[in-house]
Amino acid sequence: MSQDIEQIIKSLMLPADYIISKRTVNEESSSFVNWRDDVYEKLEGKNAIILGVPFDTASVERGAALGTTFLRKYIKSIAPEEDLIDLGDIKVIPHFIHDRYLNIATIDQFQQDFFQDKNLPVAPLSVAQRVCEEIYHFHPTKKIFGLGGDHSISYPLIKTWFNSRKKLGIKTAIIHFDSRSDLKPDSVGLELSNKSWVYELNKSITLTNELIQIGLQEEDENASFCTQYTANYTKNNLSQVLNGISEHLNSNNIEEVYISFDISCLDKNYASCTASPTENGLEPHHCTYLIQGIAQSVKVSGCDIVEVAPKINNPNPNPLSSEPNTTLNNSALIANTLIEVLNNAG
Questions:
Q1: What is the pLDDT of residue 320?
Q2: Model-level pTM?
Q3: How far apart, in whole angstroms, are the C-alpha atoms of residue 6 and residue 201?
Q4: Dihedral, CA of residue 131, residue 133, residue 139 and residue 141, to nearest 10
Q5: Rounded distance between C-alpha atoms, residue 327 and residue 272, angstroms
Q6: Beta strand segments in the chain, E
Q7: Is 244 exposed, middle or buried (0-12, 13-18, 19+ CB in 10 A)?
Q8: For residue 217, which of 245, 184, 182, 193 has the smallest C-alpha distance?
Q9: How many angstroms separate the CA atoms of 337 and 342, rounded?
Q10: Euclidean distance between CA atoms 187 and 99, whole angstroms
Q11: In Å, how far are 2, 102, 269 from 161, measured between CA atoms?
Q12: Residue 265 bridge partners (DSSP)
């Protein structure tokens, strides 16, 4: 890896001392791993890389930006330390979403203020995309585990993952766990939002037969190009759903998959601290069963977990209540299952 890529990535990432001193997250700040100067060593490791994107500006319901901070502590408490390679969090200017929405003068000003006039992206989704592009340029088969943030962060993560595999001639598919399809053309006028990122992704990447959605509250009539399983059907036909997914992947010659997991697909009894808690959603064991089963059929080479919002929709604000611990424990269970299948993929 050249010195240039190391400096680019370090420029786009937040050092741990900045996060701890500048963000109001109280004692939870200690959950961040310390930022070190061994970017090269981290990228050369065989395990998946955790990349935090603490961003929720693309959502009308705010709160998921704190997901990276709180969830890291829970992930690390139950995962072997050697399994975790944590690159840290990207720099986030919360006023922005993507550079496409900014004029040249604004970009120039923030490049001057934040990057000493380096020609680097300034909006969070663009920053996440650039970091992933740099990693995949030197390590095309690297496995990245995205930690969100609202679901819009999946757009740059999946797009760069898809492009890296396409260059290698690898046929891919996306497994999307969610309570909704995220196929709206836009949300409050934005094409890139947590409710429209799949629609936007399908405009640049043809997802016909390459997208499977699991855990929806209802099927989306606009999703004729993909395969959908509702939460109710999945719960009542779990083994059939896994068999159907495996057969679909095999019949379409899929070699690798990306799993994007929105925690709102879980029933609110298991995850109420999210922007849109779900009635009659999936249970954690449904999801771990499917994730592990899918990994036995095809290589899982990219993942993310999003919409964990520890400070919102807590039904009982009493510090002795089960929330946000219930949401965080179940999110960590899913996250560690994803990390495990990534690391086992070779």
A1: 56
A2: 0.89
A3: 28
A4: 110
A5: 6
A6: 49-53, 85-89, 144-148, 172-177, 211-216, 227-230, 256-262, 299-306
A7: middle
A8: 182
A9: 9
A10: 17
A11: 21, 25, 33
A12: none
187-193: long-range contacts at Cβ-Cβ below 8 A with a sequence spacing of 24 or more?
187/58, 187/60, 188/60, 190/58, 190/97, 190/101, 192/58, 192/97, 192/98, 192/100, 192/125, 192/152, 192/155, 193/58, 193/59, 193/152
Residue 218 has which token pair?
């209802």
Count other C-beta atoms under 10 Å from residue 269's C-beta. 14
The amino acid at residue 55 is F
Beta-ladder partners of 53: 148
Alpha carbon distance 225, 221 (integer Å): 10
Report the pLDDT value the prediction gives residue 20, as an integer from 0 to 100: 30
Q: Which two tokens stand for residue 164?
A: 């890296």
Contact 155, 202 (CB under 8 A): no
Q: Which are the contacts of 53, defined by CB distance < 8 A and separation ≥ 6?
A: 68, 89, 90, 92, 124, 128, 146, 147, 148, 149, 153, 157
Question: Burial, 317: exposed, middle or buried (Cβ in 10 Å; 0-12, 13-18, 19+)?
Answer: exposed
238-248 per-position pLDDT tens digit: 999 999 999 99
Residue count (the chain): 346
Residue pair 229/215 in contact by the 8 Å Cβ criterion:
yes
For tokens 């249970």, the residue is 283
DSSP state of 282: B
Q: What value, to the nearest 5°, has the Cα angle with vertex 84 and ends 12 and 122?
A: 15
pLDDT digits (tens, 9 = 90+) for 221-269: 778 889 999 999 999 999 999 999 999 999 999 999 999 999 999 999 9
DSSP state of 36: -
